Amino acid sequence: MSTANLSRRGFLKTSGIVGGGLVVGFSLNGCSAGPVPLKSVASAWAPNAFVQITPDNVMRFYCPRDEMGQGVTTGLATLVAEDLDVSPERLLIELAGPHPDYNNPAFGAQGTGGSTSVKAHYTQLRQVGADVRQVLLQAAAQDLGVPIDSLDTDDGHIVHGDDRLPYGRFVATAAGLEIGGGAALKPPSAFKHIGREFPRLDALAKSTGTAQFGIDVDVPGMEHAVVVRCPVAGGTVKRFESEAARAMPGVTAVVQISSGVAVVAQKYWQAKQAAGKLEVEWTSPQLADVSSADMRAEYALALEDAGDTAHSEGDLEAGFTSAQTVIEQDYWAPYLSHSPMEPMNAVVHVREGEADVWSGTQGIGIAQGLVARYAGLDVENVRAHATYLGGGFGRRATLTHIIEATEVSVATGKPIHLLWSREDDIRHGVFRPASLVRIRTGVDDEGRLTAWQARRVGGNITPYTLKAALPGVLPSLGDGTVDWLVGVAHGAFDGWVVDSSGVEGLHEDLDVANVAVEHVTRENGLPLTFWRSVGHSYTAFAKETALDELAVQAGIDPIELRLRNTGGKPRLQGVIREAGARMQQMQPAPGRSLGFAAHSSFDTDVAEVAEVSVEGGRIRVHKVLCVVDCGIAVNPDVVRAQMEGAIMFGLTAALHGEHTLENGAVVQSNFHDYPILRMNEAPEVEVVIIESAEEPTGVGEPGLPPIAPAVANAVYAATGQRLRSLPLRLA
Amino acid sequence: MIRFELNGHIVETDDAPDTPLLWVVRDTFKLKGSKYGCGAGLCGACTMHLDGQAVRTCVLPVSAVAGKTITTIEGLGTPEAPHPLQAVWAEQGVPQCGYCQSGQIMSAAALLESNPAPSDEQVEQAMAGNICRCGCYPRIKQAILTAAAELAVEVTA
Fold it and tell me: Where are the domains of chain B?
């Protein structure tokens, strides 16, 4: 009964429906996907891919989503624990390897992002817990020779009269039983753990230096690789001179790979020093003609194009005619990098017919597929080992560092630890697209919006995210087919359909009869991707600043203006009302002003109030009030932490974040010229969670979009200066 | 050979003298708790104690620590016997991704050694060299103040 010997009849045979009508469809019968990659634990019972219980009652939970700080291991463990009836603190958490049973029900693939995890797994993992508990009860009834309804459970134990018997005592019998599935879930009134405050489960490991990140992986015989890449994305090696690098101490190889030239040495520092001795000549890509100063002017010109229609309702011009006050303004947001504290890295070991990869990713299946593809192996012969992520924010869905490590391991036959420097990470990454948004809107004398027109100019992320994911998701797809599909996507989004991630959040919150959302694509070859809250990171800034401008111009209270025009979103109205009432009670110190913004993203509604002062031309944010409605808060402490973190992440973008291009190269290189908010700039944050009985929605991203406009609106209140460009800079 | 004390043990390395201490500790002595973040002394993820002072080891050549005493996060405490700061960090759910926390805690520990009862502003100043991209700052600050208060009670008790 080892884990390698998973009997078919021991598996759950359920398939259900979760909120939104998504089919869970976890057959969990191994089928063509091969065995689930569980730890080999003697005599452990693994009724499904998620739970493994030993006879001495050690209970493991295989967390299907990636832990990048958002608290997903704690959140998902709580779901399975609730209906298994065990404290989540008792569960040993393992980061799951690749297998279809671990697919994200929201994606049908094994990816983590889009604030989906708790929402998408809410019913699924509770059902897993309930079904396992049910079988344990059956096994206990059989072993004890008592009727099942004389038994109960409590914190990992079967309760029979005064006896408390650990679940582990019954796993041998349970392993022989059929799992029926469909066991009843607890009613919310019986919840012991969902909604309970407790510190996240990985906190002690992360406070003692014992949590393992990708960079910490160290395997016998491992060597270290540093790659020199073209300063301009898309450039390739024309020729290189490596004699000086090869002569450096510890260097064992210099190899050309698809992204540049890799120097391999016994230790990282040796590889890093030797890489500095390489001389490489590059081909000049299309992006080499691009500089940021020209780009913004081009975007402004492109705003005059009609663009492609993303959404249209009613009669826009009639709406403007009936308006009493009309405004039209443009809002700019620059390129941003994610700059997680752990730069990109991977360990890959390719051997004859098999390989291992260790990395912290937002899709361990993609890591596995990429190694298979670039090592010429079948996917089932690649073992992929997930680690903690030293920050994700969307960055770790693009895994070119895994391709690099694979190519170097293939070339050298050695286990390769490949690490990007901070400079590599900032300059050679994938970016939040720059964006220029024009809002034209009108309001009547009753404070009702009569027309709302939003037009965005910028790049589309979807072709780039496809290009990043496809080769790993479908390793057998030829390079030509991948390029063709990516080309089709680029073409489709330029004049045919609109990439929804570019315009998301521009109008959905507003209940207005006459609407047009339009898009003009501008691309230059700089690779783009998801960045915490994606399109909302700039659309909320445009929408919420424009609403504030309109309110001021029309002489309407800005909170009242929002309440009158968000009738289709009662939950959003709830957070606006709550934050508005609390804003009335706030008494900012002399010299400080308040600004308000609210936005709905990823099905979660957030309103924020920023208390700001302007001293010597410098914007200082002292306090932020955040009101969030995310349905049931599975762990209120984690929800608060995500709101706090998203506000800080958003403040870095609001006050500092900007990447510029000069002849196609990213100008910034490290934290001195791409500054991240520091503790002495961090505001006090108060988070209010709206009580709710609705199923949970995501919290990783929605705290971010309102903060930049809340600060900008406060700066207007303080100074009369309306700031329409990020980062916010006073004239 | 460069010889120094690492978490209570005398160690020797033949790494090149200009190798930053961080990489000697991580690659040669295999202690992975201290992290690489910027390589330029800008983010504090690599913070260790050199004779009790918080230092950025990504820019500190190992030659500079010959004969000196180095403490890393592993030497500060363990999951079984955490330092009071580590215990408070866990109780208050401070970390998110957790990558910067070793450096944060080492900076905080050095602060409390030199100033057992810091004010809010003193905490902010002492910790301004440590970046947390997840934005755990309010909790880091609170945890330091809580630990300082707890340690003060222990001292007077």
Answer: 2-76, 84-156
Task: Provide ipTM, 2 decimals.
Answer: 0.98
Record: contact B35-A202, CB cut-off 8 A: no
Q: 93-122 in B: which are within 8 Å (CB) of A?
A: 93-102, 105
SS3 A305: coil
SS3 of residue A206 by DSSP: helix
Task: Inspect the interface and report whether the beta carbons of A679 and B124 lie closer than 8 Å.
Answer: yes
> Any idea what the Cα angle at residue A254 is, between residues A251 and A256, rounded to 5°?
160
Query: Pairing between strand A416-419 and A223-229?
Result: parallel
CATH superfamily of B84-156: [2Fe-2S]-binding domain (1.10.150.120)
- Where does a domain end: A172, A190, A207? A207
Looking at the complex, does the CB of residue B43 fall below 8 Å from at least one CB of chain A? yes
- Tokens standing for residue B106: 């080492």
Q: How many domains does chain A have?
A: 3
Q: Which residues contact A533 (CB under 8 A, 6 or more apart)?
A: A540, A601, A602, A646, A650, A701, A702, A704, A705
Distance CA A92, CA A57 (A): 11
User: How many cross-chain Cβ pairs, A to B, lie less than 8 Å apart?
Assistant: 195
| pLDDT tens digits, B76-122 | 999 999 999 999 999 999 999 999 999 999 999 999 999 999 999 99
Please tell me whether residue A265 adopts helix, strand or coil conformation.
strand
* Average pLDDT rounded to a whole number, residues A441-452: 98
Q: How far is B64 from chain A (nearest CA, A)?
A: 17
Angle A524-A527-A529 from CA coordinates, rounded to 5°: 125
